[in-house]
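Re: Re: ligand-bound prediction request (bumping)

Still looking for help on this. To restate: I need the protein modeled with adenosine-5'-diphosphate bound, output as structure tokens. Inputs repeated here so nobody has to scroll up.
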Amino acid sequence: MAVIVQKYGGTSVGNPERIKNVARRVLATQQKGNKVVVVVSAMSGETDSLIKLAKEVHPEPNEREMDVLLATGEQTTIALLAMALHALGAKAVSLTGAQAGIVTDGIHTKARIANVTPKRIHELLDEGNIVIVAGFQGTTPEGHITTLGRGGSDLSAVAIAAAVKADVCQIYTDVDGVYTADPRIVPNASKLEEISYDEMLELAALGSKVMQARSVEFAKKFSVVFEVRSSFNNNPGTTVKEETSKMEDVVIRGVAVDKNQAKVTIAGVPDKPGIAAKIFKAIADANINIDVIVQNVSEKGFTDISFTVAANEAAKSAKVLQPIVKEIGAREARSTPDIAKLSVVGIGMRSHPGIAAKIFEMLAANGINIDMISTSEIKISVIIGLKDADKATRAIHDAFGLARS
Ligand code: ADP
Ligand code: ASP
Ligand code: MG
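Reply:
Sorry for the wait, this slipped through. Here it is.
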């Protein structure tokens, strides 16, 4: 008997009809002779509504309480899906993250999974149940509810697949698979048959929200091969796995754009050793992830340091930096919204020069100014104005011949 883990995202469980659709698909999978574990997200829009609700009560809600609140979104769906399965005559039991044995650290709102003990899942499967697990949540060893960061149900699914040694891990969403760019921005994007963990990780980390980046990192670490496919049809999806030599023939796998970015600049920083360390230690201590960093050439002993963060962490960053600005004698810390990060990703880039030049030329031809640049072995990112983001994404996608033929 194969063990199959299926994850259904928010849109796929967005209303009662869709929950019933998922129930039928899940039951059909079990009836083919498989043991099925289903991980579900909150109904689409629910997590956002809960965040909004919290902010109406407190402008900066306590993160522990935020997790207690957000976990209710997924708790609603697991119960509803269990009921929908019961209506079809199936045996099904819902489990919260804690009940499913998902233990995390205590970094509320973006906890890391420490371990998964799937004893209960196995017992329930052995009794013939379809086991439904709430995505996006876990518990600390002390019993505090935690959540795994936005899009975290993907991580729940991959972690459970690793823990139960699943034969198949399927991520069902509202698109047919992973495309060369977000099909909502680039309508002629092509669906990929397969993609390496590293490329998927870069695309996800750089803004392709089809998969949560941390879930891909986890999948790579524990060699969980997974497939991204649609819950609305039976089309083959995209397989995400270790790279093969054939994959290197493709220079550019895809284009990602992240419109939820902000730039933080600390102006008038004295140019002497130890200053950058102080700034970035304060940011790291506040658990804020930073991305592109640029330090200007210093003038008369002073310089500007800029870095990008997720837009929702810009205010927190500025707050954390206030005492540091005073301490190091800098002029000010300010954040700039309305920026976007456009990135081009491909493992073939390692062996093909000239990619950066082509990107810069295309942007210039479209009159788009580049604010910051960052590169790694398999990606090139540029920070541009938010208003130019979609246009630039389409232009770069076309320039690299990624459009569907
Ligand atoms: P779910 O709720 O199922 O987790 P998400 O909304 O998190 O779904 O992710 C699916 C969305 O990701 C798609 O609707 C699509 O707009 C977006 N997306 C961004 N980049 C890509 C890409 N390269 N390929 C496919 N979808 C992408
Ligand atoms: N409901 C959570 C979110 O909206 C987790 C998920 O959907 O994966 O971020
Ligand atoms: Mg998602």
